[in-house]
Amino acid sequence: MMSLNPILIVHLFYVWGIDFMGPFPMSFGYTYILVGVDYVSKWVKAVPCKYNDHRVVIKFLKENIFSRFGVPKAIISDGGTHFCNKPFETLLAKYGVKHKVATPYHPQTSGQIELANREIKNILMKVSMAKRAISLWNWNTRLDGAIKKLNMDLSKAGLKRFLDLNELEELRNDAYLNSKIAKERLKRWHDQWMT
């Protein structure tokens, strides 16, 4: 008899997508933005960077992801040389993190990070256009505000996500139990007709 497959359980901050944005016009020496997005909560973390190399990525992971949210189970990135190199793979192996590379033929894999990149760019452009004194050359001074707006904006995140973030574990457990009950009912129905 064939068993039904269990649902995949992914916890908060277990799967992160990372990507570089840029190059932008130089702003106080910074030309890139390194963005990380949690695939469950959609939480965005971004930092301005002077370079887009593996040293920046490793520092970002250690200081902004591992130390604040814990070590994830998987990291999804594109196939850029800043993500696919020996020091990066060594760090991930040291902490037991799986590295998933999104291919250009299946862009949905990194869809969450691309959506965050687009939203960050839109917010920075709106701030730059709204205040003529603030131009795109000083985008890095507005990056923290853009990320805060992206993470806390009720119209983007949704009121339910904003209010129920602490109850996410309970909601996931309820969904798992409901799925288990439904599978047991389906099995009973199937067994009834097969006997």
UniProtKB/TrEMBL annotation:
The keyword Transmembrane applies. Residues 2-175 form the Integrase catalytic domain. PANTHER family: ENDONUCLEASE-RELATED. GO terms for biological process: DNA integration. The keyword Chloroplast does not apply. The gene is pol_739. Gene3D superfamilies: Ribonuclease H-like superfamily/Ribonuclease H. The chain crosses the membrane at residues 12-35. This is Pol polyprotein. Keywords: Membrane, Transmembrane, Transmembrane helix. GO terms for molecular function: nucleic acid binding.
